[in-house]
Design a protein that fits this description.
It contains two helices and two strands; from the N terminus they run αββα. By secondary structure, the chain is an alpha+beta fold. Strands 1-2 form a two-stranded antiparallel ribbon. The protein is flat, with a radius of gyration of 12 Å.
C-alpha cells in the first residue's frame, strides 16, 4: 500500500520525534506506526499514527 508522505509530515508537525524533539528529519530508534493497520482498513492519516520504538514495532508485526 502506498503511504502518504504528506500525512507523515503532518503527523510529525503535531507529534515531534520522541528522541530528538524535532518535527523533521530522522527519528533514531523510532518509526511511525499506523494504529489500525492500513491492510485492515486503517486510514493513512495523522489521527491513525503513533511513534513506536523499533523493538515495539517488531513485536506488533508478529501478531498483525
Amino acid at each position: 500500500m502506498k503511504r502518504s508522505l504528506e500525512a507523515k509530515k503532518a503527523f510529525k508537525k503535531i507529534q515531534p520525534c520522541p528522541s530528538t524533539g524535532k518535527s523533521f528529519g530522522a527519528c533514531p530508534g523510532y518509526i511511525i506506526d499506523h494504529i489500525v493497520p492500513l491492510k485492515r482498513g486503517g486510514m493513512d492519516a495523522p489521527s491513525n499514527m503513533q511513534w513506536q520504538t523499533i523493538e515495539q514495532s517488531k513485536e506488533k508485526d508478529k501478531w498483525e
